[in-house]
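Help needed: design a sequence for this.
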């Protein structure tokens, strides 16, 4: 019985390779476990799309003044950053989700509504362009992970009816 070892040349495997069966007949192991991103305080659940390499994602939540600074009126903001592969490159946002009380929401708010309740509006903003120069590894990976609004809506859901922070709920009733 012969065993064949193959060494790579440093190029990242294609997504098709992740699901392809190996010569030994078993599927290769995933780099990182694919789990939904659930932020109970913000009332957000986001199931990472199949085109996301979850090992290349950083989730950055913001609350209160930090969220409001990201988008006026937002009580919560969640950014899904692409973690740059190349050390000289900085991370860039693939997706922003903002949670805005309906009383503070304006249709002119930057972004697209992905869902809402009677009290909350959930707005998404995606990058207009790829921030990396053409021909770079990060350019290709970022582009492969970019989402359309329909893909965001498909992956997004409201968790437990919306934000769970009791102080925010009490503040709404005033």
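Sure. Designed sequence:
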């Amino acid at each position: 019985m012969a065993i064949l070892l193959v060494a790579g040349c440093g190029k990242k495997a294609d997504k098709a390779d992740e699901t392809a069966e190996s010569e030994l007949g078993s599927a290769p192991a995933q780099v990182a476990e694919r789990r939904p991103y659930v932020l109970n305080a913000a009332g957000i659940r986001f199931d990472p799309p199949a085109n996301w390499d979850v090992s290349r994602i950083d989730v950055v939540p913001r609350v209160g003044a930090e969220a409001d600074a990201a988008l006026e009126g937002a009580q919560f903001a969640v950014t899904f950053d692409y973690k740059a592969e190349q050390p000289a490159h900085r991370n860039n946002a693939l997706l922003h989700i903002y949670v805005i009380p309906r009383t503070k929401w304006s249709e002119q708010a930057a972004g697209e509504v992905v869902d809402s309740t009677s009290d909350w509006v959930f707005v998404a903003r995606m990058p207009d362009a790829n921030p990396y120069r053409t021909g770079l590894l990060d350019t290709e990976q970022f582009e492969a992970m970019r989402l359309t609004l329909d893909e965001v809506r498909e992956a997004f859901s409201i968790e437990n009816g919306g934000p769970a922070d009791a102080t925010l709920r009490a503040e709404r009733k005033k």
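Helices lie at 15-19, 65-70, 137-145, 149-155, 166-172.
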